[in-house]
Amino acid sequence: MVEWTAEERAAIQGVFNKLDYESVGRESLTRCLVVYPWTRRYFGGFGNLFNAEAIMANPKVAAHGIVVLQGLEKALKNMDDIKNTYASLSEFHSVKLQVDPVNFQLLSDCLTVVIATRLRTEFTPDIQAAWQKFLAVVVSALSRQYH
Amino acid sequence: MSLSAKDKLAVKTFFDKVASKAEDIGSEALARTLFVYPQTKTYFSHWADLSPGSPQVKKHGLTVMNGVLSAVGMMDDLKGGLLTLSELHAFMLRIDPANFKIINHNLLVVLSLMFPEDFTAEVHVSVDKFLAQVSLSLSEKYR
């Protein structure tokens, strides 16, 4: 089981409190699709993803960004058992979506970069450490049900 | 995933703008590497103080960042330009190349928190590609 210190819980909750899901969700997913263009393979139904401007303006990307952050909020609300909270989500990503788990880390990294642009110097090394630990647990839980 | 003309221009323009902050960028990136990925501290057992803000971290952060900035001027032949530095890392420092990805990630985090308006998605992809190429060139002499 993952152990969280009081400081880590506070740090992670603190980051969430400052997140505008719409803005951060959209930009994180956009960056993922721009910085790692091969990830577009999973979004064939999203329409125009041909360049950064198109992706940023794409309403399906915006909507999906919010979905991703709402998913992360589930992990936040169940921090002491992310593994089981995410069991069906993991199964879904494996069987239905067939997403290579490598991509979870790519999106995580983009999310961290976007949060850094929003929080700036408030995103201290210890907050970064707690946040990345949280994302690592999420990534691991999402990858768990693959078979 | 080699650098296109567009990538090279984006990298050069961005780093020309931020070069004056080399010490801040480098030391912050190194500090976060040591703090967020504690396994990296194993390479610095000879330092007294590994905490963010320590004089050794600051000085070495600048060294690393100056290396990155000099690589900006070598984009037409990174392998050739970084040969000596590769030998240093391969034979003397013997840093596992997996760690290059870690410091690159922290460079991106620091660049985005320090320059949020300039570090757009397009600049992000070009810089990420550039840092990956630098890492590859640094790994050249390992085996």
UniProtKB/TrEMBL annotation, chain A:
InterPro entries, A to Z: Globin, Globin-like_sf, Globin/Proto, Hemoglobin_b, Hemoglobin_oxygen_transport
Superkingdom classification of source: Eukaryota
A Pfam family that the UniProt record links to this protein: Globin
Domain Globin: 3-147
Entry keywords, A to Z: Heme, Iron, Metal-binding, Oxygen transport, Transport
Record-linked CDD domains: Hb-beta-like
Gene3D superfamilies linked to this entry: Globins (1.10.490.10)
Protein family: Belongs to the globin family.
Protein name: Globin domain-containing protein
Automatic annotation (TrEMBL), chain B:
One biological process term in Gene Ontology: hydrogen peroxide catabolic process
Entry's Gene Ontology cellular component terms: blood microparticle; haptoglobin-hemoglobin complex; hemoglobin complex
GO MF, one annotated term: heme binding
Keywords assigned: Heme, Iron, Metal-binding, Oxygen transport, Transport
Gene3D superfamilies: Globins
Pfam families linked: Globin (PF00042)
SUPFAM superfamilies the UniProt entry points to: Globin-like (SSF46458)
UniProt similarity note: Belongs to the globin family.
Entries under PANTHER family matching the protein: EMBRYONIC ALPHA GLOBIN E1-RELATED (PTHR11442:SF91), HEMOGLOBIN FAMILY MEMBER (PTHR11442)
Protein name: Uncharacterized protein
